[in-house]
């Protein structure tokens, strides 16, 4: 008879434990509270929006107009450093470039869309260049493309890369974005610098995995008139050639250097942070424009892009400069 109460107490104990266990597995009554928190949280942004909207109405103070002092004139009609780029090969043979595209050496000839290469962009295909370094104030660069796009525009970005110490690692990149002005303008013109000198990896201009950590041209010296010199770089459409763009940059950018190399770029979008491109992409990602390079043809990650070899400016090339024109 004494065992019965202890049995009952055991059953009761088990019952209590089970109840406790089952209540622990049941979802706690928090969700309803959580919903309350969430609804409170969803209300908060509307308050924030109102808070941020208020100062915005008080803000419209016009940015001070950029005061220009030096405006480029006309480049010389003759002379200058001249060089050309592969182009007729591209335009006459759709979906391929047999010459001028060498990923490993940092040479690109791919004014086509990615993967199919069935769209050719004459406004991204560099034809020839003339650089006039003689003027005391300005360097003039005349960049001639194969043509304009279907809407008669230069939809792309056009850049001059300067290597002042001729070691293959560029120091400056002057980028013109979608040039459309017949008059000299700084709109759409930016000058970048590789301030921490990390472009090129172990082998400048040659593809190498070390260069992937480079942040490219990370410093913006000039942004459409903003910068230490509001007149540092300009462009205009060439008044005498519908396929040409004229770029002018100050001699002062060069810090007294008169012998350097220059290369030209064109692309739908040029990313200053990704120079040198062939250090930031692997060959299989970038693809190739030459069908004879069967492993990597066609172009893939790097498309709608063209560049030239590097031309000696102000001196005769030794031939040893990385990327130098033959
Ligand atoms: Ca070209
Ligand atoms: Ca350099
Ligand atoms: Ca490299
Ligand atoms: Ca850098």
Question: In words, what does this structure look like?
Answer:
This protein is of the alpha+beta class. The protein has two domains: 3-58; 81-313. Helices cover 20% and strands 22% of the residues. It is globular, with a radius of gyration of 31 Å. The chain binds calcium ion (4 copies). Residues 194, 196, 198-199, 214-216, 218 line the site of one calcium ion.
Order of helices and strands: HHEHEEEEEEEEEEEHHEE
Oligomer: single chain
| Overall number of strands | 14
Q: How many domains, as an integer? A: 2
Bound molecules: calcium ion
Gyration radius, rounded: 31 Å
- What is the general shape? globular
- Helix fraction bin: 10-25%
Largest sheet: 9 strands, antiparallel
| Overall mean pLDDT | 85
Unreliable stretches covering 5 or more consecutive residues = 1-5, 7-55
Concise synopsis of the structure shown:
This protein has 326 residues and is an alpha+beta fold. It has five helices and 14 strands.
List the helices and strands and how they pair.
Layout: H1 3-25, H2 30-58, E1 81-84, H3 88-92, E2 109-110, E3 126-132, E4 138-145, E5 157-163, E6 172-177, E7 189-193, E8 219-223, E9 226-227, E10 233-237, E11 244-250, E12 260-267, H4 277-280, H5 283-286, E13 305-307, E14 311-313
Antiparallel strand pairs: 1-3, 2-13, 3-4, 4-11, 5-6, 5-12, 6-7, 7-8, 8-9, 10-11, 12-13, 12-14
């Amino acid at each position: 008879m004494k065992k019965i109460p202890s049995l009952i107490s055991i059953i009761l104990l088990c019952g209590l434990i089970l109840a406790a266990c089952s209540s622990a597995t049941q979802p706690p009554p928090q969700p309803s509270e959580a919903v309350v928190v969430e609804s409170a949280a969803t209300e908060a942004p509307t308050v924030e929006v109102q808070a941020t909207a208020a100062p915005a109405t008080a803000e419209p103070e016009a940015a001070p107009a950029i005061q220009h002092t030096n405006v480029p004139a006309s480049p010389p009609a003759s002379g200058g450093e001249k060089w050309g780029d592969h182009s007729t090969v591209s335009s006459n043979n759709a979906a391929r470039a047999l010459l001028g595209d060498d990923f490993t050496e940092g040479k690109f000839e791919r004014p086509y869309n990615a993967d199919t290469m069935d769209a050719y962009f004459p406004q991204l295909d560099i034809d020839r260049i003339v650089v006039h370094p003689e003027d005391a104030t300005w360097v003039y660069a005349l960049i001639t493309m194969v043509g304009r796009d279907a809407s008669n525009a230069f939809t792309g970005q056009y850049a001059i890369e300067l290597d002042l110490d001729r070691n293959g690692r560029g120091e400056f990149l002057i980028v013109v974005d979608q040039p459309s002005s017949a008059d000299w303008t700084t709109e759409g013109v930016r000058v970048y610098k590789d301030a921490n000198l990390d472009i090129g990896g172990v082998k400048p201009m040659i593809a190498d995995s070390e260069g992937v950590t480079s942040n490219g041209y990370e410093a913006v010296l000039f942004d459409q008139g903003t910068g230490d010199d509001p007149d540092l770089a300009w462009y205009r459409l060439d008044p005498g050639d519908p396929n040409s763009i004229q770029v002018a940059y100050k001699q002062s950018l060069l810090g007294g250097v008169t012998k350097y190399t220059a290369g030209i770029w064109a692309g739908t979008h040029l990313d200053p942070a990704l120079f040198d491109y062939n250090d930031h992409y692997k060959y299989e990602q970038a693809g190739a424009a030459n069908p004879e390079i069967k492993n990597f043809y066609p172009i893939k990650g790097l498309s709608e892009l063209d560049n030239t070899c590097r031309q000696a400016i102000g001196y005769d090339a030794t031939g040893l400069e990385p990327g130098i024109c033959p």
